[in-house]
Design a protein that fits this description.
Number of domains of chain B: 2
Number of helices of chain B: 17
Number of strands of chain A: 14
Strand order of the largest sheet of chain A: 6-7-8-3-9-10
Largest sheet of chain A: 6 strands, mixed
Shape of chain A: elongated
Distance between the termini of chain A: 39 Å
Helix content of chain B: 55-70%
Order of helices and strands of chain A: EEEHEEHEHHHEHEHEEHEEEHEH
Strand content of chain B: 5-15%
Radius of gyration of chain B: 31 Å
CATH superfamily of the largest domain in chain A: P-loop containing nucleotide triphosphate hydrolases
Order of helices and strands of chain B: HHEHEHEEHHEEHHHHHHHHHHH
Largest interface: A-B, 29 and 24 residues
CATH architecture of the largest domain in chain A: 3-Layer(aba) Sandwich
Helix content of chain A: 25-40%
Radius of gyration of chain A: 23 Å
Oligomer: heterodimer
Number of domains of chain A: 2
CATH topology of the largest domain in chain A: Rossmann fold
Number of helices of chain A: 10
């Protein structure tokens, strides 16, 4: 059974259809990436899961049952728009949020201290929140989202505003969580990060899923194999080779899009026969390329 | 479903964070200082002002002047605290009257006299009124004017009665005054002496306390809500707290801050009580020591705060900044001030249908129904009805406010529509 099941969910704000019949399924233990350009509907989708806005249509199931206010407590949530009480002390604030999330006071205090140690903020425990840097505040907010050990954690754009070190730290924490069996769903528009972490993706554009599924499967399905070819003096490769659907020139290389990986040997032979090939390598397009292409095609289909 | 534990967590945070701010302690100490300055300042100035006044009297009638002097001396004995007027006379024969008057006018301008009284040349006959001039640069010194007027009036009456051949014993009878003793009669035949003025004053003051508490702390709640929205902290906690828990906790926590402040003030006041005991406050004891009244004061104080606190919280939730909320807030302020228009009619006739109906309107009840309780204890059914109306209205406003809160907080930018509010008010939360 999926940890989280989003089924044909729609939401309109006035005339704007923010999400339209969106479906995806987050398996237990996954690191699930909700990807898409700004305004694609990622945050609205997450807010619907959190019941902050209610969907116009469709269902959202957590562990097989509809999410209600009680079930919602089992989700750790880091919103995109985040804030803290500026005048509170860091430790005190974390204990407060722990209690709000349902922990007894002692336990909240114990865990809050442990988290501050872990995130390297122990000596800031008694500073006021407003005295922390933005990155530090973000760490506190992350700790607040997971302090009650929820089985599902949802992070909305968790990496924005973090420096490389803090980004690394957060990635490690996410990996650590999955090792403990916690399912993570996060949204981002920074694709290399998603590519590094995610076991599953859902790419959203204009409120609809362009594709979703396991990372490897997505790659196989949507990223056609390519050959990256360098030729002497940049002589263009021949046209109309069987098994090649498209030739692109980028950064001085020719990228030959193949219909299938199995055609590669035949294509290499043919091309090498007809032009001065210097090198050929198998090229795996990045998620970013897949993503850009998919979004581009989506907009073409709109026009 | 309403989880008290969660509301309590919110309230505790609200309380602790606010009570430890400098602003809290400054305002706690500043208010009594300002109040003292306001109440004692004028009294102090008055005490200084009641020094010795020199009042010139222009008359040719030596006897009348002496009678006046005596009347002033009598009054001085009566009114202990007001040690006024010593009289210096100028006796002028009829021919020099006008010249003397001009001279005395100059003396008034030169401040040698606080005032000059010009008595008539001859006393009128029959029932005609005597005309007496009072010259001064300051016609607002009411206490002085009244004292002088009474002394002059007494002197003239005495002399006219004597001239009409009335025996002194009879004249004394004719001049004797009446002392009206107000006695308050209560259900069951109990009666008590109360000064009319102090009942009125205490009722008025307590009604003001209820009103200002509701407005002052209501506005703190509103500011808190707006701050919470603009700092985006709501987003972080909204998944784990229902708007009602959050809102109730907030109102409750701020209310506790208010009670703490009042408790500190009461402690200060209790210490200062010895100081005040001699003054008019003693007359207020009738209200302050009546347990039923004090209890109802506390109940109305708390309910009034909750009703208006939730109203202000809803207001805060509907707007993104204080400036935006300002205009509506002003309107709300006028509505809240309406009870004051009804205070005098209710004081004149606490039992009339209008008084009963108006005092039962929940938004007025904390002020007006309480006022009626001070004046004349209303029948039990009215008290029960009043509490029932007030509590259910408060519950409704909290609910409605929570709905606004939910929509208002989460739809940044866009003002919630009435339709949205209605949906949320009915919807699950």
């Amino acid at each position: 059974m999926a940890q989280l099941q989003v089924d044909k969910v729609s939401k309109a704000f006035g005339a704007v259809q923010a999400v339209k019949e969106l479906s995806f399924s987050v398996p237990k233990g996954a690191i699930y990436g909700l990807l898409g350009p700004n305004g694609a509907g990622k945050t609205t989708t997450i807010r619907m899961i959190m019941r902050i806005v209610l969907p116009d249509a469709g269902t959202i199931l957590l562990e097989g049952e509809p999410v209600d206010d009680l079930k919602r407590e089992r989700i750790g949530y880091l919103p995109e728009e985040r804030g803290l009480y500026r005048k509170m002390h860091v430790l005190e604030h974390l204990v407060f949020l722990g209690e709000v999330r349902g922990l007894p006071r002692d336990e909240a205090s114990h865990r809050a201290k442990a988290w501050l140690d872990r995130l390297g903020l122990a000596e800031k425990a008694h500073s006021k929140v407003e005295a922390l840097s933005k990155g530090m505040q973000q760490k506190v907010q992350f700790a607040a989202a997971v302090i009650h050990d929820p089985p599902l954690v949802i992070l909305d754009e968790p990496f924005t505003g973090l420096d490389p070190i803090a980004t690394r730290q957060l990635k490690d924490e996410i990996l650590h969580m999955t090792n403990r069996g916690i399912t993570v769903l996060f949204s981002t528009h920074v694709l290399p990060q998603a590519e590094e972490l995610c076991t599953h993706y859902c790419l959203i554009n204009r409120g609809r899923a362009l594709f979703s599924g396991e990372a490897e499967e997505v790659r196989k399905r949507y990223a056609k194999a390519q050959l990256k070819v360098a030729t002497a003096n940049g002589v263009p490769p021949p046209q109309g080779v069987a098994g090649v659907s498209l030739v692109e020139k980028r950064h001085g290389f020719y990228f030959l899009h193949l219909d299938g990986t199995e055609q590669a040997p035949e294509v290499v032979r043919e091309v090498a026969n007809r032009c001065p090939v210097v090198s050929v390598e198998h090229y795996q397009p990045s998620l970013e390329e897949i993503f850009l292409r998919a979004v581009e095609e989506d907009h073409v289909s709109l026009a | 479903m309403f989880r008290w534990r969660k509301a309590f967590i919110v309230a505790r945070r609200e309380y602790l964070v606010r009570v430890r701010t400098k602003a809290f302690w400054i305002s706690t100490l500043a208010v009594p200082v300002v109040l003292l300055a306001f109440s004692l300042g004028p009294a102090f100035l008055m005490a200084r002002a009641t020094g010795t006044y020199h009042v010139g009297v222009l008359t040719a009638d030596q006897e009348l002047f002496h009678r006046m002097e005596r009347a002033l001396a009598d009054r001085r004995g009566q009114e202990g605290s007001s040690r006024i007027v010593v009289t210096v006379a100028r006796l002028a024969p009829a021919a020099e009257r006008n010249g003397q008057r001009e001279e005395l006018k100059k003396a008034v301008l030169e401040k040698r006299f606080a005032a000059v009284v010009v008595l008539p040349e001859a006393l009128p006959s029959g029932a005609e009124e005597a005309k007496v001039e009072y010259l001064s640069t300051n016609l607002s010194a009411l206490q002085l004017i009244v004292t002088v007027e009474r002394a002059v009036a007494q002197a003239i009456r005495e002399k006219r009665l004597a001239e009409a051949g009335v025996a002194p014993e009879v004249a004394r009878i004719a001049l004797a005054g009446v002392d009206l003793l107000p006695v308050k009669v209560r259900q069951g035949g109990e009666e008590s002496r109360e000064s009319v003025a102090s009942t009125f004053a205490v009722g008025y003051v307590l009604v003001f306390v209820i009103f200002f508490t509701a407005v002052m702390y209501g506005m703190i709640v509103m500011r808190g809500v707006i701050e919470e929205k603009s700092s985006r902290i709501v987003e972080v906690i909204v998944a784990n707290l229902s708007p009602r828990e959050l809102m109730f906790g907030k109102i409750f926590g701020v209310g506790l801050v208010g009670l703490t402040q009042y408790a500190l003030w009461l402690m200060l006041a209790a210490n200062a009580m010895g100081f005040f005991a001699s003054s008019g406050v003693a007359g207020a004891a009738g209200v302050l020591t009546n347990p039923a009244l004090m209890l109802s004061f506390l109940v109305f104080f708390v309910l009034g705060y909750f009703l208006y606190g939730s109203l202000y919280a809803a207001l805060g939730a509907a707007f993104n900044s204080e400036e935006e909320a300002q205009q509506v807030q002003n309107v709300a302020g006028w509505v809240m001030a309406m009870p004051f228009l009804f205070m005098v009619p209710i004081m004149n006739n606490p039992d009339s249908t209008v008084s009963v109906v108006v005092s039962l309107i929940p938004f007025f009840a904390p002020m007006l129904f309480f006022l009626r309780m001070v004046l004349q204890f209303p029948p039990t059914w009215q008290i029960l009805l009043c509490f029932a109306l007030l509590i259910s209205t408060t519950a409704l406003v909290v609910r409605l406010g929570a709905a606004v809160y939910r929509v208002g907080i989460l739809s940044y930018g866009a003002r919630p529509t009435v339709k949205q509010l209605w949906q949320w008010a009915r919807g699950k939360s």
